Amino acid sequence: MMGKNNYQDWTKEDLIQEIKRLKKRKKYGLVWEEEKTKERFEAEAEAEGKLPVLVEDRKREIITDADKPVNILIEGDNYHALSVLNYTHPKGIDVIYIDPPYNTGAKDWKYNNDYVDENDAYRHSKWLSMMNNRLRLAKKLLKDDGVLICAIDENERDRLGLLLEELFGNHEIHCITIVHNPRGVQGKNFSYTHEYAFFVFRKNLKVIGARRIKDEDIYWSNLRNWGGESKREDARNCFYPVIVENEKIVGFGEVVPQDIHPEKQTLKSGNQYYVYPIDKNGIERKWRYARQSVEEIIDLLRAKKTRSGFEIELGKDFGTVRTVWQDSRYDANEYGTKLVHNLVPDTHFDFPKSVFNTYDCIAPILYERKKAIVLDYFAGSGTTGHALMLLNKEDGGQRQFILCTNNENGIAQEVCYPRIRKVIKGHEDYPDITNISSNLKYYKTAFVGSEPTHRNKKLLTDKSVEMLCIRENTFEEVLNKSVPAGFNQGKAFRIFKNKEQYLAILFDEMQIDAFKKEVGKLKLHVSVYVFSLEGDDFREEFEDLKNKITLCSIPEAILKVYRRIFR
């Protein structure tokens, strides 16, 4: 990861400084040339020394169902997009799925506006610097029970694992293997058929749910023990009732005292049935799980109706996500390259993921999160957005995606956006995985000056409307009030809404009375943002509305986040 230094040409002073630097450097763990591979943004000259905002590209808006959530596609450098999201979605993302450049050495990505090839002495350090900068911002977006998923191959797997351990020290980190190219990619000594996915989440959390597979593919066996040492007296804490209601297991009773013997295997009590481990011969046996541990496997159990009551059955590992995935649906050629080419003809995109590869990564986490938000800041061809729409179609979920990608080689405008549009509008060759009613708004990163002048603060406030709409998830404008003249160039206030709340933005404090009058008419909770050069909180002015509003001063709230990032 380190370049070669010709110390013979160095001055004494330079050598002393180098020795001091090396002494300060970390001695254990992941070490790379951070100083020599600092990231610059000269590719976006307008970004230098400025702060990012979002500007909506309204001609690319897609609205098919006002009752469904609005998905977001952001075109721009993902570092700037993540910076904006640090204001709009702090601790607000359920799942982050990324498929970053694999750094194969084949000039498959750019760093500081130059392609990185296999002869670059700082190739791995550049990749680590790029990933480190973005993962640090992404970490602040995850909910406490959020999950980060990173796809990778053998080129950077080990270094990524070490970087994740460094950044997520109090988290569990698991790595799974996915066979995505059964034909293999020829290497110097081996033909590679697989890649990897890291799953990262806080320790001691149950966040990976059960896989959903067809009932006929599950091997079921009786929860009741049989054979040797299967009787009640062999394990007395394994004799208790399983409670069934409406043919579903709803709970478990306490261990039955030794001197009590149920009359039969299934006893009815009101609308519930109590099922005991008694076999057809009336012999009291035991369940295979003790009372104190059976609740942990309730998702693996089912109640099967019989003539005389119910049998309790255990599905063998049917719900557990395994660490090696092998299935034809993960084929990156069939369900990645060919799919993207057919959905968006006359375009070229290297190595898109199988949509089912991504789907199976995110689905077990999201089955029970019907209103989750999923972020992919290496969006590429939009596979993550496609996968999430498929999941919503499957179970009627209201999940949202946020995709971030630059427009290098037209990837945002000519591949990602057209693909998402085609998935929403439909494609005759893919009726099962397209024609999914969804909504999309398209944004581009833009920039305002970072110097804390009155002009820049005013400009940041004017340009923050899209950010505030995204933050509050309110996109339908219901009022846009202006005044003939004034410091805010005619803007007075704007009000937006969704089904649950309003967003109200006051640009000119001289219009506060008219603004309060309109806010007072609103029936739902209102998030109020007030422009102030000095960061005043306006609590006294809004005291009479405090029970129906949440009050925030802008642009100070935005600047506070940006100071931490761009210091």
In words, what does this structure look like?
The protein is an alpha/beta fold and 567 residues long. The protein folds into three domains: 47-210 and 322-445, Rossmann fold, CATH 3.40.50; 215-315, no CATH class; 450-566, no CATH class. Helix content is 26%, strand content 26%. It contains 13 helices and 26 strands. The strands form six sheets. Strands 1-21-2-20-19-3-6-10-7-18 form a ten-stranded mixed beta sheet, with helices on both faces. It has a five-stranded mixed beta sheet with strand order 22-23-24-25-26, sandwiched between helices. A four-stranded antiparallel beta sheet has the order 13-12-15-14, with no helix packed on it. A hairpin with a 4-residue loop joins strand 16 (301-305) and strand 17 (310-315). Helix 2 packs across helix 11. It is globular and about 90 Å long.
Secondary-structure blueprint:
Elements: H1 12-24, E1 50-56, E2 70-75, H2 78-88, E3 93-98, E4 106-111, E5 114-117, H3 123-139, E6 142-152, H4 157-167, E7 171-179, E8 185-186, E9 191-192, E10 194-202, E11 220-222, E12 242-245, E13 248-252, E14 266-269, E15 272-275, H5 291-294, E16 301-305, E17 310-315, E18 324-326, H6 333-343, H7 355-366, E19 373-376, H8 383-395, E20 400-405, H9 411-425, E21 439-449, H10 454-462, H11 465-472, E22 476-482, E23 491-497, E24 501-506, H12 512-521, E25 525-531, E26 549-554, H13 556-566
Parallel strand pairs: 2-20, 2-21, 3-6, 3-19, 7-18, 19-20, 24-25, 25-26
Antiparallel strand pairs: 1-21, 4-5, 6-10, 7-10, 8-9, 11-17, 12-13, 12-15, 14-15, 16-17, 22-23, 23-24
Helix pairs in contact: 2-3, 2-11, 2-13, 3-4, 7-8, 8-9
